Amino acid sequence: MKKAFLLVVALTVIVGLATFLYARESGQPGIKDTPHDVAVMTGDTTLEPCAMCHSPHSGTGDYPLWNRDQAAQTYTLYDSPSYDMNENKQPQAPSSLCLVCHNGVFSSLVNYPGPGSHTNENYDYEMNATFWAMLGIDLTNEHPISFTYDPTKDNNQDNNGFPPAQPCPTAPWRLWIPGDQGLLTYPLYGTGATADQFECSTCHSVHDTVAYVGKQMVGGKSVGSQVFFLRSSNAGSEMCNDCHVNRW
User: Fold this and answer.
1) Same domain as 86, residue 9
2) By the 8 A CB rule, do 100 and 70 touch?
3) Do 58 and 176 have their domain in common?
4) How many domains does the chain have?
5) Are residues 37 and 24 in the same domain?
6) What is the DSSP string of 170-182?
7) 47-91, pLDDT tens digit by residue?
């Protein structure tokens, strides 16, 4: 009986592992073969893709197990007469984590893969100014981030309205902005009683490689230099119109 039980457990593990590996190779969320894969960034296929951003031990304390180290930066922020939700806040996590690479400032790893004090300069990074994704520290020409998404602050003086955020059924403190057909598409973030902060990852899913038109991906793998990691298709400005709702 014990042998039969162990056989069932072993088969369950094998099937589960096979399913996981199949999912990783069939276009499920992940960063393999995308611009966020350090092997794609450097051409060195021996590097560990997860270690480029995460460490299971000795991270910086920022979530989630953050593994990059960079001197603190002060950003010039976006502003506009119609930006009624402006709180003039410096970028906060997770947006601040995205900017560690996308601000063009040198960063290194906190904990390099390997034994002891092992280092590898291929994990160190400074985005070249010619890269299309290099935002710099001047964010005045970028969509605002790190603000409280609160449509009630809208002054109703223009045609630009915003849909109310909705609670997540499985985590009521998490708010999402509904997208196409009312689906909860764009997550808001935060660590307080209510997660209501609009961040980079509200529109972009860093680990998402699911293929669709406009993302320049086929079968979950990059086929072009620009992979936007968008949470939805922006064909015909669909994503823009999900949040920016015309009043008339």
Assistant:
1) no
2) yes
3) yes
4) 2
5) no
6) TEEEEEEEE-GGG
7) 999 999 999 888 887 678 999 999 999 999 999 988 999 999 999
Half-sphere exposure for 147 (CA within 13 Å, toward CB): 16
88/145 Cα distance (integer angstroms): 10
For residues 14 and 35, state if they share a domain: no
Range of the domain at 208: 31-246
Query: Residue 100, CB half-sphere, CA atoms under 13 Å: how many?
Result: 24
Whole-angstrom distance, CA of residue 107 vs CA of residue 71: 8
What's the gap between Cα 223 and its chain centre?
Answer: 20
| CA proximity to 34, closest of 238, 204, 235 | 204
pTM: 0.82
Burial string for 80-95 (b: 16+ CB within 10 Å, else e) reads eeeebebeeeebbbbb
Stretches where the chain sits below pLDDT 70 are: 1-29, 62, 116, 159, 209-226, 247-248
* 241 shares a domain with 208: yes
